[in-house]
Design a protein that fits this description.
Elements: E1 2-3, H1 67-76, H2 85-96, H3 99-118, H4 136-139, H5 141-164, H6 168-184, H7 195-204, H8 207-221, E2 246-251, E3 255-260, E4 266-268, E5 272-275, H9 293-299, E6 304-309, H10 321-339, E7 344-349, H11 351-365, E8 372-378, H12 389-392, H13 396-409, E9 411-412, H14 414-424, H15 426-439, H16 448-454, E10 459-460, H17 461-473, E11 482-484, E12 487-489, E13 498-503, H18 511-515, H19 517-520, E14 525-530, E15 548-552, H20 559-565, E16 569-570, H21 573-583, E17 588-590, E18 604-605
Parallel strand pairs: 5-6, 5-7, 7-8, 8-13, 13-14
Antiparallel strand pairs: 1-11, 2-3, 2-18, 3-6, 4-17, 9-10, 11-12, 14-15, 15-16
Helix pairs in contact: 1-13, 1-14, 1-17, 2-6, 3-5, 5-6, 10-11, 13-17, 14-15
């Protein structure tokens, strides 16, 4: 796989509502991944906390990443993102040139701190900020002053970055640094200030601190050296995760192909092939019953197939994008053979969507696009020209160094990726569990998505390098910018209908960046904007009262025009996708009585064997 290596273009700095998608560190809704809009400004007389509301709830399990920053950080450590570098120098210079602005900010902060010390300040956290839910934060004079001083200084620190009016890269980087330093310094993270921790210690005679110390030692003893986020004893793949009935009907060195057993008397003639990410295992699409995308699609009468990627090791170092694109094409051929059809629908998730998009480009270039009846992408970033913080902290030099290091090892260790996932949202995925596991001495809760996230995989060195090259050159945005299996990729020549899903609260793949996919692809595109975040947008079963979405076949160039003109629909986009799928899946036919065929015999029951590899 080849790309033209050119520097990523700078985009003009945006302001106001248009920055909602790009400002990943601040455009997060209260509660983490499932909210629908950026947090609102606080009422007059109140200062919002320097970080969004977050808790241990299921809504806060947004744990994936755009490829360029994620794959560089996985080599050099995610903590590099906290180094302001030259951006810090530019911040100092900009503030030095605005002494009046800095003076007004300092005077207002000092005045508010004096009111805090005197006990007259009205500053308070927002009611939904769970970090400060204990009544003692309000009733105890000392704790109230500590909290108020923290809120005032935290707000001042983050607003100084805004006052500097930096370019977008510096603004993204320094906003992230400021907000996360403020987050780390929260008094709720302090074992001698957190009233819940003190109460637990008194109630248990200090046993909670001892349990917390034991948890800390256990977590820090082995990679990825972050707080444990999930009670792994609650889940077993094949027992209560990835349990939709099916069989492995094809196995290669690279993947297993799972065919799911029909659950209806009649099925649609055109099958659906799902391509999961290569960064984690496939069963994000087949979680617990009632929360499984696969289960929902099969129950609707769809024939569903799933690729389960092999977990590569050192001997697979040369597996690159060509390898994985060829694997998708092989799976597509097997699906066509088993279902006796010349068309399929391809539905791909996250990084799997990049692979499938390259496969689509190859099919177009080789005159085989007719093999697809539809093409769908879930939370997939194709245009990476300006993807918020992630684009702002990655450079071609870092990319080259990261690729060289992984080539020396033969692969990128999945435990490194786990650390990245945690530090992408330290408020939700580090400090939350710092308090729960170490200060309170509790075990983390049992969430299926977090279990999936902890079930790490490796990435072949060549795939790592190819992904990085593709991202830093933004090759998919230019006709012929990328080449796969010897053919140039030109997405503008695509004519098959597409279905593109994004999450408005996605801090990983900003929805406005995902929206640009509909301008890249030819053909008729339907864009769907879920109210959820990156993973919650995928694991989004019907029945969740918090979920809604916007969907339209009319996709104006400006994403804000889409946002302003398309009404929300209550419920899950899964039902909308089934309707779109039905319209492109041909007539019904009798469901097959057996899985596979003589050329593709059943090799194992789902979830197969590759999913268990460690």
């Amino acid at each position: 796989m080849a790309v033209d290596s050119v520097p990523r273009p700078r985009a003009p700095r945006r302001s106001g509502p248009a920055r909602q998608g790009a400002r990943s560190a601040t455009a997060r809704p209260p509660g983490g991944g499932s909210g629908g809009a950026p947090r609102e400004s606080p009422p007059r007389g109140r200062v919002a906390p320097p970080a969004p509301d977050r808790g241990l709830g299921e809504d806060n399990v947004d744990v994936a990443a755009p490829l360029d920053s994620l794959l560089v950080d996985a080599v050099f450590s995610p903590l590099r993102r906290f180094n302001p570098g030259m951006s810090g120098l530019r911040l100092g210079a900009r503030l030095a040139a605005r002494p009046r602005t800095v003076g007004r900010r300092a005077t207002a902060t000092a005045a508010e701190l004096l009111k805090v010390a005197a006990g007259f300040s009205a500053v308070a956290p927002t009611p939904k900020d769970r970090r400060f839910a204990e009544q003692a934060w309000r009733d105890n004079p000392l704790l109230r002053r500590v909290l108020q001083a923290y809120l005032v200084t935290g707000r001042a620190a983050t607003e100084l970055v805004t006052d500097a009016e930096l370019g977008w890269r510096d603004d993204e980087r320094l906003s992230f640094v400021a907000e996360n330093i403020v987050e780390a310094l929260s008094p709720s993270n302090n074992p001698v200030l957190n009233p819940a921790a003190l109460k637990a210690a008194l109630d248990t005679g200090g046993a909670s601190y001892l349990r917390g110390a034991r948890n800390f030692v256990q977590d820090m003893a082995v990679p990825p050296r972050v707080p444990t986020m999930v009670d792994t004893s609650a889940f077993t793949v094949g027992k209560n995760l990835a349990v939709t009935p099916g069989s492995v009907v094809m196995r290669t060195d690279v993947f297993e192909l799972i065919q799911y057993a029909p659950q209806t008397a009649r099925v649609r003639a055109v099958p659906l092939l799902m391509v999961p990410p290569t960064i984690n295992k496939y069963y994000v699409a087949d979680l617990a019953p009632g929360r499984s995308m696969v289960e929902h699609f099969v129950a609707s009468g769809q024939q569903v197939f799933m690729i389960s990627w092999r977990n590569p090791d050192r001997k697979h170092a040369d597996w690159g994008l060509d390898t994985y694109v060829q694997a998708v094409l092989e799976a597509l051929g097997a699906v066509e053979d088993i279902c006796a059809t010349d068309k399929s629908v391809l539905f791909s998730l996250c990084a799997g969507g990049i692979i499938s998009t390259l496969a689509l480009g190859h099919l177009v270039a080789s005159g085989q696009e007719h093999r697809l009846a539809g093409f769908s992408l879930g939370v997939t970033l194709l245009d990476q020209s300006r993807a918020g913080l992630m684009s702002s902290v990655t450079s071609p030099e870092l990319v080259a160094a990261a690729a060289a290091r992984s080539r020396a090892d033969g692969y990128l260790d999945g435990r490194s990726l786990a650390a990245i996932f945690a530090w992408l949202r330290p408020g939700d995925l580090v400090w939350n569990y710092w308090v729960n596991n170490y200060l309170l001495g509790k075990q983390p809760p049992a969430f299926d998505v977090l279990y999936w996230n902890a079930d790490t995989t490796r990435m072949a060195a060549e795939l790592h390098a190819d992904f990085l090259d593709l991202a830093v050159s933004n090759a998919l945005t230019r006709p012929g910018g990328a080449e796969v299996l010897g053919t140039p990729v030109d997405l503008s020549q695509v004519t098959v209908d597409s279905y593109v899903v994004a999450g408005i609260a996605d801090h990983i793949c900003p929805w406005t960046s995902c929206y640009r996919t509909v301008q890249l692809l030819g053909g008729q595109s339907r864009f769907v904007l879920s109210t959820n975040g990156h993973i919650a947008a995928l694991v989004n079963p019907p029945g969740n009262p918090k979920s809604s979405y916007r969907a339209s076949d009319d996709t104006p160039v400006d994403p804000q025009d889409f946002l302003g003109s398309v009404d929300q629909t209550q419920g899950s986009w899964w039902t909308d996708f089934v309707q779109w799928l039905t319209a492109r899946s041909g007539p019904d036919k009798r469901a097959p009585r057996t899985l596979g065929n003589p050329e593709h015999e059943v090799l194992a029951e789902a979830p197969g064997t590759y999913v268990y590899a460690t």
